[in-house]
Amino acid sequence: MKKVCFLFVMLVLVNVNVKGLTPTLDDDVLGLIVFKADLLDPDNKLASWNEEDDSPCKWVGVRCNPRSNRVSDLVLDGFGLSGKMGRGLMQLKFLNKLSLANNNLTGGIGVNLGQLSDLRVIDLSENSLSGSVPSGFFDQCGSLRSFSLAGNKFTGQVPDSLGKCSSLGAFNVSGNQFSGVLPLGVWALNGLRVLDVSDNFLEGEVPKEIGRLYNLREIKLRKNQFTGVVPDEIGACALLRSIDFSENSFSGSLPSTLQKLSLCNELDFHGNLLTGEVSEWIGEMGSLQTVDLSKNMFAGAVPSAIGNIRSLKVLNISGNGFSGSLPQSMVNCENIQSLDVSRNALTGFLPSWVFQLGLRSVSFSENKLSGSVFSAVSSSVANSHQNLQVFDVSHNELSGEIPSDIGKFSSLRLLNMSKNSLIGEIPETIGKLKALSTLDLSENQLNGSIPMEIGSAASLKDLILSRNLLSGSIPSSIGTCSSLTSLILSRNSLSGQVPVAMSKLADLQYVDLSFNKLTGALPKPLGNLAHLVSFNVSHNQLQGELPAGSFFNTISPSSVTGNPTLCGAAVNRSCPTVMPKPIVLNPNSTGTDPESIPQPLGRKKILLSISALIAIGAAAVIVIGIIFITVLNLRVRSTMSRSAAAVPLSGGDYSSSHTTDTNSGKLVMFSGEPDFSTGAHALLNKDCELGRGGFGAVYRTVLGDGRSVAIKKLTVSSLVKSQEDFEREVKKLGKIHHPNLVALEGYYWTPSLQLLIYEYVSGGNLYKHLHEGEEDGNRSSLTWNERFNIILGIAKSLAHLHHLNVIHYNLKSSNVLIDGLGEPKVADFGLARLLPMLDRYVLSSKIQSALGYMAPEFACKTVKITEKCDVYGFGVLLLEIVTGRRPVEYMEDDVVILCDMVRGALEEGRVDECIDERLQGKFPAEEAIPVMKLGLICTSQVPSNRPDMAEVINILGLIKCPSEGQEESG
Ligand SMILES: *[C@@H]1O[C@H](CO)[C@@H](O)[C@H](O)[C@H]1NC(C)=O
Ligand SMILES: *[C@@H]1O[C@H](CO)[C@@H](O)[C@H](O)[C@H]1NC(C)=O
Ligand SMILES: *[C@@H]1O[C@H](CO)[C@@H](O)[C@H](O)[C@H]1NC(C)=O
Question: From which residue to which does any coiled coil extend (predicted)?
């Protein structure tokens, strides 16, 4: 750097005879080093520029004249240079070409540059140069061929001296802030081939002298403030290929002399004030490829001579007053790719050539086209379907149905048929449009439902179907349109729930489902959508709580209004319970569904009488069953004595070792020999009823050997699978053995009656231990250690089931039996597998006796039910055991949900108050509180947030013996 400063000082002081003083130093080396000293070179592109060199000719970006060895070209395009264009350049007396394009140079250009009289090319385009160009800049520009300042920040006028550049072939100052009038001398530069002054603030008219620029190939005046008419003389510029007068204020009509420009391929007059008609002369411009006359005030018919321009690729006449119909001759424009005639007053039918020519982009929007789209599409040629990417016929008067052939246009990205009078259904073939990004069919009279196939149009970003007559539900397949940002379905008659799958659409920004008939609660996971800008569900019949999340917490009330039972802060209506809500059964529904009787307080009288009726009915059926069984037993015995073979325990084909009588039924015991003869009377005795649940009543009976068994009579018989399926499932269940599971010992099957034979457990069920005997002041209750042991035992039994891929589905305290040693034994596992279809309806309507234990995903059609629903039930059960309270309690005018209550208490720091008061302080808080927290985690709303049962066992181990850590696991 020191040396450079020294050189620079020297240059300034001794600028006349440098060579004399330091004979080894080349003027050009000096000039370039000084030039470099003014620059910042972050990429070190000029590293080879070394002042110790004798000659700069090998430096990067430098070329010398081979004869004189003086620098002729300096080309540093795109070197990432910033800083100023310094005076060092002035030392390069023999410079021919200076090209510094695409850098970050700032400051102005010195007047001196114009003194380099050998310069032929100056390209300073795409920098950040500013200031005005000095008026004498072009005084010595006789050699200048090409000059570009494009893409800088120059201001002021283009200097008059430009007229002196008699050899100038290209002049480009586009993209600056030049103002005023172009010097008249410009129009005398008859060597000019390219004139580009676009994107400045230039004004004035284009003079007739333009006719003298007979070498002109390209003229670009785009985006200035030129006024006046387009002079007739332009027709004399016979070599013109490209005319861009767009975005100015030219007025009058287009001169018909344009027809002489037979080489012209680009004609752009868009965004002016041009009037009049475009007449048949345009057909003479046989080389035209791009014609843009949009946004003017042209009127009249589109000339049919346009069909003569075979080379035409792009025609845009949108935003004018063209009327009539498009000429049929356009069928000859076989190269046309883009046609935009939108915003005119065109009438007639949608021309079928539109589909025959293989266009990429077609817009007819905002005209007065009528007739059906159908006929135009169906008469189209098959092989042209591939090209169409944009098809916009919105805002016309088209009628008829959307042709299903639309599915053949496989490249479509935008399909807009909105604001017409289309009828019928949205064709399923829409799903074949894999590239479709925008589909707008709004404001028609379409009916039917949104086809499920919409999910196959996986590129959709904008789906707009508002203001139609659509009904049915929003297909959950919408969840596969993963790029969707706008979903506008407002003002239809859509019903059903908002699909949970919508919460998979992570890019969603605009959702409008307002003015439909949607019901149910908004899926909570919608709260996770991070990019929502608006979400309008107003005027539906939605209920329940708004999803939580940053967007929904501050949603505008107008977006949710008009849903009478929606609750949350935004609708100014508080929700009846705290956030996580299990499925709650209406206690009043007992009369219609005796299977699902909960045990609501204060309704016992009615319940008793109903259960009495049921018991009598059940007993009657059982009697018949028992007679069959007895008959069967005799047969089995005789068969067995003959074959001297025991009934196979497992894995075998039972039917082969039994006499099967389809009329009477089939009895299978997994071990030993059944004998019900002494138990029959017991089944007649209502006192022997042990209990009843979602799957049926349970009776105790004593076998011949004096052993007790529990017999469950399945009351969901109409739902039971075929005999084959039933037996297969029961056999599977029969193989499951665990100390904490009630063993299934056998079964009996007839088409109308099914019995399951279980191990009898003497100690009663957990429900009784926890909740009964309160009234009669019997306070002898389970100790903390007993409760903990029960929790652990249940956890182990569930872990075992889940390990075998069996989901219990029906966990509740009345299904946990306590044996003589106080060990829990879980009953009723896996029975849902006996139902013909494991669907949510069946699960929630037939097993909903598990009031309060049922995981929330049962309410969501789209969330897969996994073993995590048992974890939820376990969590509720755990809280029930610790608090001694029922999962759901009906108070005078309130419903208390146990896990909400505990969660609330935990948040307020008084969780120990929830612990069963019968423990009367006799519990270790350091165990009880973590256990309750575990229960709350298990009752997480989102299944994946719940631990699995093996983890639960680990955690319980850690709680009981924190110091022993992991060793306790399992
Ligand atoms: C110019 O500078 C800006 C920041 O000052 C930088 O972002 C940009 O990449 C530079 N351009 C070139 C061509 O180096
Ligand atoms: C003028 O220069 C700009 C910027 O380099 C370029 O984009 C444009 O094509 C040039 N104009 C003509 C007519 O070549
Ligand atoms: C149950 O019925 C009673 C009396 O008909 C009624 O007051 C109560 O609101 C009902 N409860 C529910 C949850 O519907």
Answer: none
